[in-house]
Amino acid sequence: MQQDEAVAGAAGPRLWLRDPLAILAEEAGGGLVVEGTRIVERVPGGGAPASPVHEIFDASRHVILPGLVNTHHHVFQTLTRAHPAAIDKPLFPWLKALYPYWARLTPEAFRLATRLAYTELLLSGCTTAADHHYLFPRGLEEAVDIQVAEARALGIRACVTRGSMSLSETEGGLPPDSVTQDHDAILADCERVLNLFHDRRPGAMVQVALSPCSPFVVTKRLMRESAALAEAHDCRLHTHLAETRDETDYCLAAFGQRPLDYLEEVGWLSPRTWLAHGIHFDDAEVARLGRAGVGVCHCPTSNMTLASGFCRTCELEAAGSPVGLGVDGSASNDASNLIEEVRHALMLNRLTYGAEAVTHRDALRWATEGSARCLGRDDIGRIAEGLEADLALFTLDDLRFSGSHDPLAALVLCGASRADRVMVAGAWRVVDGQPLGIDLRALREAHGRIARDLFGMA
């Protein structure tokens, strides 16, 4: 990195990321200027910043993207990847096979799972991570506190969702009693973590959303009261919906209605809501979602792994719904890599809609602007003046990129998997492909050991 002479009387340090190989922004061929936590200037190709800078980073080897935004994950599942009990199963049998293992989750195991997943995401160019944590076995009541502490330590921007499961097998739900919680305990903890951690201000590093898990594991009462609590605290709502045909069948049998009718009855059909998966909606339901402004997180790898189906991304966007991207749980992906998810989204949607209908720019938009809209944020997801300086820088040095001609297209089509540099809120968090402050070998050993000890098959 080159240093320029100090600029006397400057309001603060200004960094110019100069002359990138390519950049996902208009009128920014000459790069961009960061001051504090924000982008303050886009520099046209061949130009220079309008005001003096203190520091220059030569970005001529780099493709610059807005920081990727992950809108659906279950980080605890990094401990049960490729688990023999669940391989080659669709969603409901997959869940029932893994619930008994997940009931063993301890605070230390969860801390390591969170740290590993956040680190993986950062390395893939992700700067904002939404995790849907709904599992609270005895002893793990402060799971949200653990996630907030890990996000702050790593410097990743986080939307931590306080999930829940209140409807056990004995009450007609899917999970065993060992992983569900009492209704009143759930709502009390939701209010606690909202008061402690939810930051509504622009540039917030931590926000909280409420996320009862799905129609087959929570009561309608919990859904309604979660919606009321979200309104009172001005936070987002998140849940799984219409992921599989089995879910539709369950809703019809248990409630006499389809999943979207269920969502409307409990007061969730609003712009405050974003849904995970959103696969099995008919034309009329897609139109209703669009009119209501409900966001949908597309999870292509998980949907292919569990053979759940495909999200109607193009129709949802056309109807008015924000469409984002998520890696989903690391036991149905089985990774926490958002730039790889971009490629999978492109391929699956081309297979669905045709080669000309979905481009690499569409897939990148879902992972940036679309995901930011799902989280209700207009301060991230794009490279523009006044927005947060969340950036992912990739090189095209690997053999897989040799011979490529369009750098942005190559990033997706040739299969980028790891960022060279990642900036969050104006601070470098990944440098030369390494996360700052993390011993990757030690993390891998500790995480792998606890996964074997707690979740291995006897």
TrEMBL record:
InterPro entries this protein is in?
A: Amidohydro-rel, Metal-dep_hydrolase_composite, Metal_Hydrolase, MTA/SAH_deaminase
Q: Where is the signal peptide?
A: none
- Pfam families listed in its UniProt record: Amidohydro_1 (PF01979)
UniProt-recorded Gene Ontology molecular function terms = deaminase activity; hydrolase activity, acting on carbon-nitrogen (but not peptide) bonds, in cyclic amidines; metal ion binding
Q: Give start and end of each Amidohydrolase-related domain.
A: 63-426
Query: Which keywords does this Swiss-Prot/TrEMBL entry list?
Result: Hydrolase, Metal-binding, Zinc
Q: Does the keyword Isomerase apply?
A: no
According to its UniProt record, which protein family does this protein belong to? Belongs to the metallo-dependent hydrolases superfamily. ATZ/TRZ family.
Question: PANTHER family of this UniProt entry?
Answer: AMIDOHYDROLASE-RELATED DOMAIN-CONTAINING PROTEIN, AMINOHYDROLASE SSNA-RELATED
Which protein is depicted? Answer: Amidohydrolase
Q: Which organism is it from?
A: Methylobacterium nodulans (strain LMG 21967 / CNCM I-2342 / ORS 2060)
